[in-house]
Amino acid sequence: MKRFTIAAAFLLLVAVSRDAAAQGFISPFLGTTLSSPSDAGSHTKPGYGVAFGALGKVIGGETEIAYFPELLDNSANAIAKNKIVTFSGNTLIGPTVGRVKPYVGLGAGNLHLNVTSLSNVVLPSADFSKNYFTFNVGGGVIGFFTNHLGARGDLRYTRAFGIKIEDLATTGLSLDKFNFWRATFGLAVKF
Fold first, then answer.
1. How far, CA to CA in Å, does 42 sit from each of 15, 80, 191?
2. Which of 28, 49, 60, 71 lies in disulfide reach of 92, CB 3.0 to 4.6 Å?
3. How far apart are the C-alpha atoms of 85 and 93, rounded to whole Å?
4. Number of other residues whose CB lies within 10 A of the CB of residue 104
5. Quick count: other Cβ atoms within 10 Å of Cβ 168?
6. 10 Å Cβ neighbour count for 149?
7. 64: closest CA among 103, 107, 95?
8. Measuring CA to CA, which residue among 133, 123, 136 is closest to residue 171?
């Protein structure tokens, strides 16, 4: 599944960036989650990542890698630590107006979830680590201050598929779905 996700993201990026006016970009970012997949607690730690791709006059594409060191509230969910790494290929659709590009983005990819239970000291097998297929949708804006340097703001909803309650039983979590909103802000460099 991971190979398929990587191949699909690459093909999506190549397919949508064939616009004659397409320009490459890279966008490192910082972000935070606005909601938690768990009903218990809402504390999360900021995450970071990088997106790179091509922007056309209307359609663009990107590949994004992001890391969030605490998506689930550790103390409220009685877990020692948790982290997620996401990898996705996204299509960006929106007009370019001067140096500004508002867009709607949608994509698919992989979410790697790693949870360490508090009982890990007693039961070393209480760790949980698994990959899930994800879908994301959202929007944002990229504005350039110069021909090559600008800023980007983005809001996304991410949903992971295939989460099973019994998979998380050893960690003490009881999630039947895994979805969250996140907001990011970062630099945008066009080349």
1. 38, 16, 39
2. 60
3. 25
4. 12
5. 20
6. 11
7. 107
8. 123
Range of the domain at 86: 2-108+126-190
48 located within any domain: yes
139 forms bridges with which residues in the sheet? 104, 155
Lowest mean pLDDT among 24-38, 63-77, 130-144: 63-77
pTM above 0.85, yes or no: no
For residues 87-110, give the mean pLDDT.
Answer: 96
Asked whether residue 30 carries a pLDDT value surpassing 90, the answer given is yes
Query: Is the backbone of residue 162 left (phi > 0), alpha (psi -120 to 50) or beta?
Result: left
Q: What integer pLDDT is reported at residue 178 of this predicted model?
A: 79
Q: Is residue 119 part of a domain?
A: no
Give domain status of residue 77, yes or no: yes
Q: Is the pLDDT of residue 19 over 50?
A: no
Which residue spans within the chain are E strands per DSSP? 23-33, 47-55, 59-68, 79-93, 100-117, 128-144, 149-161, 178-190
In this prediction, residues 144-158 reach a mean pLDDT of 96
The structural domain count of the chain equals 1
Token pair in block for residue 180: 């969250």
